[in-house]
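User: Design a sequence. Structure:
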């Protein structure tokens, strides 16, 4: 499993960073740090079982529903 973040939909509310700080971080400007690595979509490397659980919780907490788990 991997996580996919739709950076066009994401509004940097930061709920993911509070829910799964090991997977999501905000930079000094309060934007999701993945924006440095991707423009439209960010797809992570393969996640461990523990990371999948954290990613699922973060996806549930995202007010914009910008986070999805993909195979």
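Assistant: Done.
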């Amino acid at each position: 499993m991997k996580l996919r973040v739709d950076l066009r939909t994401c509004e940097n509310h930061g709920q993911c960073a509070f829910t799964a700080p090991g997977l999501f971080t905000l930079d000094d400007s309060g934007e999701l740090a993945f924006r440095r690595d991707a423009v439209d979509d960010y797809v992570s490397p393969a996640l461990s079982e523990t990371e999948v659980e954290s990613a699922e919780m973060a996806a549930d907490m995202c007010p914009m529903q910008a986070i999805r788990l993909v195979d």
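The domain at 2-70 is CATH 3.30.70.20 (Alpha-Beta Plaits). Strands lie at 2-6, 41-43, 67-70.
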